[in-house]
Amino acid sequence: MALHQTITVLNTLDSAYANGEQVRQLFAAYPAVKVDVHKVEGEKGSTEFVKISIPGSNGKLAGGTAPTFGIVGRLGGIGARPSRIGIVSDADGAVAAIASALKLAHMQTQGDVLKGDVLVTTHICPDAPTLPHEPVDFMDSPVDILQMNEHEVLLEMEAVLSIDTTKGNRVVNHKGIAISPTVKEGYILRVSEDLLRILEMTTGQFPVTFPVTTQDITPYGNGLYHINSILQPAVATNAPVVGLAITAQSMVPGCGTGASHEVDIASAVRFAIETAKEVTGGSCSFYNEAEFDRITELYGTMSVLQTLGKPAVTSR
User: Fold this and answer.
1) Average pLDDT of the chain?
2) What is the C-alpha end-to-end distance of the chain, expressed in Å?
3) Residue 84: is its pLDDT beyond 60?
4) What is the pTM of this model?
5) Is the pLDDT of residue 314 over 80?
6) Residue 139's beta-bridge partner residues?
7) Could you give the CA distance from residue 222 to residue 213 in angstroms, rounded to a whole number?
8) Could you give the CA distance from residue 1 to residue 157 in angstroms, rounded to a whole number?
9) Which InterPro entries does the record associate with it (predicted)?
């Protein structure tokens, strides 16, 4: 069950000494799975980026043609030491992503191999800084968002599920998980019907979605308010991106400890696994291609929203 992998990863990362090598050891029993760890220094410290490659039976890693699915565990840091002791709420994205990879790896040993490759990326930093934010404080990152996207949003990913703790707001008041509309090349598209179906199936509840604004899909650093970094992968790829939010009914700061709920993270893992099965198998689409072609035909490109932009010229 996904809960077993979730608890295993939580116990591994809930440590002042958590690092990429410990993540690599979680996959030592799965020789078909490749784990790459890369340490990056930033202005506010360092972090270790982790890339986990789970090959499919007809995936492009083996010369096949099945779609490649990307899971990004988005966060600032798994801990805020020395100011906070223990794993922080913001770590849930990393836990869910790694637990998803661990479940997929275990499935392969049981004969259940997905058709396409799955690439899972995140980063491990147990001593990240915090960041003032309204209505509650966020976790900051030791590296900037451009570096994070460079290591986490891969060219091979043909559809991207970005998992992030999304509890520090007043716009989604639900404990569990929720999905965003699909974002592609600066456009906020309608919520995928396939993903709504999968969300209903994996939670046993009505599907919960969360609102996304134009400023949420623009890059960090432009001075605009963002709900959080859940859709920052969308600024670095032309592939469709959907945010999978781990949510709470109350407002919880990203740097809060004792706020990671195993059942909610496992729910995100189940959703990610089922989505991976269907995307790589060709039975799930993040967006309607004909509708996207039509909207770009009518209104042109919105890729400027993937950049930091420039001041608009106004006439007098």
Assistant:
1) 95
2) 64
3) yes
4) 0.96
5) no
6) 130
7) 15
8) 26
9) DUF1177 (IPR009561)
Helix (H/G/I), strand (E/B), else coil: 122? strand
Do residues 70 and 101 touch, judged by C-beta distance below 8 A? no
Phi and psi (nearest 5°) for 89?
-55, -35
- Answer yes or no: are the C-beta atoms of 68 and 160 closer than 8 Å: no
Residue 302 confidence (pLDDT) above 90 = yes
Please tell me what DSSP assigns to residue 174.
-
Residue 315: pLDDT over 60: no
> Is the C-alpha dihedral spanning 73, 83, 23, 105 positive or negative?
negative
Tokens 């030791």 belong to 142
H or E stretch at 103: helix 92-109
Reference 154, options 234, 261, 237, 78; nearest CA is 237
Beta bridge partners of 79: 87
Residue 264: partners with Cβ closer than 8 Å, 6 or more residues away: 92, 175, 176, 177, 246, 247
The residue with tokens 């993937």 is: 306
Helix (H) or strand (E) holding 35: strand 34-42
Closest listed residue to residue 56, CA positions, set 129, 112, 97, 9: 112
Separation of alpha carbons 57 and 231, rounded Å: 30
Nearest residue to 48 via CA among 107, 123, 117, 100: 123
Contact indicator for 98, 7 with CB cutoff of 8 Å: no
Nearest to 32 by CA among 94, 99, 104, 121: 104
The residue among 44, 98, 109 whose CA lies nearest residue 74 is 98
